[in-house]
Design brief:
Layout: E1 10-14, H1 19-30, E2 34-39, H2 42-54, E3 58-63, H3 69-83, E4 88-91, H4 106-134, E5 137-142, H5 155-174, E6 180-187, H6 197-202, H7 205-209, H8 214-227, E7 231-234, H9 240-247, H10 249-259
Parallel strand pairs: 1-2, 1-4, 2-3, 4-5, 5-6, 6-7
Helix pairs in contact: 1-8, 3-4, 4-5, 9-10
The protein binds NADP nicotinamide-adenine-dinucleotide phosphate.
Length: 274
């Protein structure tokens, strides 16, 4: 279903304190949506809310760890009390980390899965029944090209994004005809604090050349919502690699290993990166 106008819509953006979520929240507010900004850092959220309000928009900050189901349910109640029923949910909060699987602690794998995948499950579970009952709603899942294209040293992240891609594709089929539209967003490499200085320094030149700005991604997301699309890959030519992986798996393995980050890239724990 096409999202014809954002005016007056109640939107939630998780991970709105930084990067892609911050820019998406600003864009949604510019379009007239009333935006609930969700993340853990209250000060960073207050800065985004102030930027929205300075431009005449409406925003409210909701401090919440998306990996905590009870906290998510309390946050949804707070958003709905302040702004009304959630009409557009952007599941964007996420963490990463680069290291071989043997060097991942199970607790860190669980932490990545809890934020990147279960966080989206908790938020979606909390708002979807209302959307279905009203016969209208939009669910946006900010996954990654890593949800279609596995690469070495990113096992926890890739697995969490494959899970999110799977969930969003199943939901988009299950919800067909319900009035609730599902959009999967697959960014390539986007310039945000997701990549700390160390990760940037180690990033292969080819990946750095492909780096895009979050504003371009946000525009592509809004266009995809307006057109009623189910998936947007940004930049779009990266989607060709999905077909290459399926049709030429040996070539895909060779190319991916060649382009992958060095083995010791960004070896800190995911908790260090959040
Ligand atoms: N940048 C890229 O190249 C790229 C590519 C593909 C996909 N993505 C995906 O895009 C999404 C946004 O990433 P980004 O690049 O914008 O990174 P970012 O600048 O590091 O932003 C991550 C956001 O997630 C929030 N977050 C992290 N853990 C959280 C938790 N437990 N509860 C609530 N919020 C949490 C952070 O806020 P707090 O720290 O305040 O909680 C922050 O607002 C992620 O899902 C990421 O996987 C990014």
């Amino acid at each position: 279903m096409r999202l014809d106008s954002l005016a007056g819509r109640v939107a939630v953006v998780t991970g709105a304190s930084s990067g892609i979520g911050r820019v998406l929240a600003l864009r949604l507010a510019e379009g007239g949506a009333r935006v609930a900004l969700v993340a853990r850092r209250a000060e960073a959220l207050a800065e985004v809310a102030a930027a929205i309000e300075a431009r005449g928009g409406v925003a409210c900050s909701v401090v919440c760890d998306v990996g905590d189901r009870a906290a998510v349910e309390a946050a949804v109640a707070r958003v709905e009390a302040k702004l009304g029923p959630v009409e557009l949910l952007v599941n964007n909060a996420g963490v990463g980390g680069h290291r071989p699987f043997l060097r991942w602690d199970v607790a860190d794998v669980e932490a990545v899965m809890r934020v990147n995948y279960l966080g989206a499950v908790y938020w979606t579970k909390a708002v979807l029944p209302g959307m279905v009952a009203r016969g209208e709603g939009w669910l946006v899942f900010v996954a990654s090209v890593a949800g279609h294209l596995p690469s070495p040293d990113e096992s926890a992240y890739v697995a969490s994004k494959f899970a999110m891609v799977g969930l969003s594709e199943v939901l988009s089929m299950e919800l067909e005809g319900s009035g609730v539209h599902v959009l999967q967003v697959c960014p390539g490499v986007i310039r945000t604090p997701f990549f700390d200085a160390e990760a940037l320094a180690r990033m292969p030149a080819a990946a750095r050349r492909q780096m895009r700005e979050p504003e371009g991604l946000a525009d592509a997301v809004l266009r995809a919502l307006a057109r009623g699309r189910h998936r947007v890959t940004y930049p779009a030519p990266l989607a060709a690699a999905y077909a290459i992986r399926q049709l030429l798996p040996r070539f895909f393995r060779w190319g991916t290993k060649k382009a992958a980050l060095p083995k010791d890239a960004g070896a800190g724990s995911p908790a260090d990166r959040t």
